[in-house]
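Thread: quick sanity check before group meeting

JM: Hey all, I'm pulling together slides for Thursday and realized we never actually wrote out the predicted structure for the chain we discussed last week. Dropping the sequence here so it's in one place. If anyone has concerns about the input, flag it before I start.
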Amino acid sequence: MAEAQKPPIQVWDLWIPDVAAVGVSFARGRLDATDTLLVHAAPEKLTVEVLDASGMLIAKGQDLPRTLSSPIARLRRTGERIAREDCWPTDADLETPVILPGGEVGILKAWWNAADHSEWRWQVELYNHR
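JM (edit): ok, ran it. Output follows.
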C-alpha cells in the first residue's frame, strides 16, 4: 500500500512594517501549504511573505492596511500576491489555519460573536509532532 504523501510546507512571515528602523516581526509560522490564513490580533499594517520549504519567496503582500475593526484578519494568496481582509469569522472559516502573535499556528474549530461585535468566543486546536 502506498504511503500518503504529506502536503508541502510553507512559512508565513508577518511583519509590522511601520515601527522601529526596519519593522518588527509579528509572527512567523510553518504550516501545510494553504491559500488562506487567518491572523489573530493583526496590527494596523502588515507585510506578509510566504516562503516554500527551501526558503524561496512564493508570494508577498506589502503594507496591507486594516480594513475593519475586528479580532481576525483573513489573508488570501492569489498567485504571487497576498491580500488582507479583516473579518468576523463565519462557519465558512472553520477548519482554516489561524496564526497567533509569535507564530503558533492552529486550526479554527469554533467561532461565536455578539451581533454588535461587543464580545466573541472562539476555539483553536493546536497540534504538533516531531
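AS: nice. The mean pLDDT is 95. Residues 9-125 form one domain.
JM: adding both to the slides.
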